[in-house]
Give the backbone structure.
Amino acid sequence: MRAKQIQQLLKSQEKDIQSLHDIVMKSIEEEDLIMMNLKNKSVEQLSRAQQLTDSIAKFGGSWTFIISFCFILFVWILFNVLAITKYRFDPYPFILMNLVLSCLAALQAPIIMMSQNRMEEKDRQRAENDYIINLKSELEIRSLHQKIDLLLENEIKLLFESQAQQLDLLNSLRKEFIVRKENK
């Protein structure tokens, strides 16, 4: 009878170990899929126009551009105010300068927008990768919860079974004690 109980305990432990093994294998498979998605990022192939757009946007948003642009405007205005009348190419209301500034703004705005759209796409990709990492963390936490729950369940089972065995032993000892007491 005791050998049978021990065999049953071993079989239940084997089942528990197998279920833990299944949980670990499932977790490893899910991790491989997630890591594969993160490792195999698409390498961005920029066209010549996109590279030029990024360069212009980078320069257009720099202090170098602002300072040099202010310097050119200052020289333009100073020359057209102080130069002899025959050398002035844009007299006081500076109509040509306004036209140049308008054209520059009209060209620079879409170039900056194109660059920002590409940066937004990169940010979106980063956000997706962050989401995948958070999802992986959540899966790991769930897997750990399953493992802990399974271990606790098995521990409780073992405690109940050992308690039942102890009760059986106590009952058998009690019966033996009663039998001995009656025989005396």
User: Anything to note?
Assistant: The chain has one domain: 2-183. The chain has a mean pLDDT of 84.
